[in-house]
């Protein structure tokens, strides 16, 4: 079920989405009085150790936000899957140790620790 849910998160975008406002510093502009320019929507990414950013059109912001959310859900799901797999391996090793001791006793061999 978890793997199926992870596979459904295909539309992903690694990064952060934020809004910024700017000040042009031109004399007489309204931004000097606090009415900043914007909002500007920025997608910040980090791939291969290099960071970058891109400005998005306002029509693309909700799509980008959903894809960033999908990426975060995917990463969280992978962490959960990793923990589950580690638990399974641990349980199987414990089972193998118990079964091996029990099997040795059944055929008359001493169990080794």
Mean pLDDT: 85
Strand order, sheet with most strands: 1-2-3
How many domains, as an integer?
1
- Characterize the overall form: rod-shaped
Enumerate how many helices there are, as a single number. Answer: 2
**Compute the gyration radius: what is it?**
27 Å
Measure the end-to-end span: 38 Å
**Helix/strand order, N-terminal first:** HEEEH
In terms of per-residue confidence, which ranges show pLDDT below 50 for 5 or more consecutive residues?
Answer: none
Secondary structure class reads alpha+beta
- Largest beta-sheet details: 3 strands, antiparallel
Task: Give the fraction of residues assigned to helices.
Answer: 40-55%
Number of strands: 3
Q: Beta-strand percentage?
A: 15-25%
Using brief descriptors, characterize the structure shown.
113 residues, alpha+beta, 3 strands
């Amino acid at each position: 079920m978890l793997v199926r849910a992870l596979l459904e998160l295909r539309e992903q975008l690694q990064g952060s989405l934020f809004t910024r406002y700017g000040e042009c510093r031109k004399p007489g502009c309204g931004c000097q009085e606090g009415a900043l320019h914007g909002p500007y929507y920025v997608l910040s990414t980090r791939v291969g150790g290099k960071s970058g950013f891109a400005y998005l059109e306002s029509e693309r912001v909700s799509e980008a936000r959903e894809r960033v959310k999908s990426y975060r859900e995917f990463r969280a799901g992978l962490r959960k899957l990793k923990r589950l797999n580690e638990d399974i391996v641990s349980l199987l090793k414990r089972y193998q140790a118990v079964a091996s001791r029990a099997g040795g006793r059944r055929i008359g061999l001493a169990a080794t620790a």
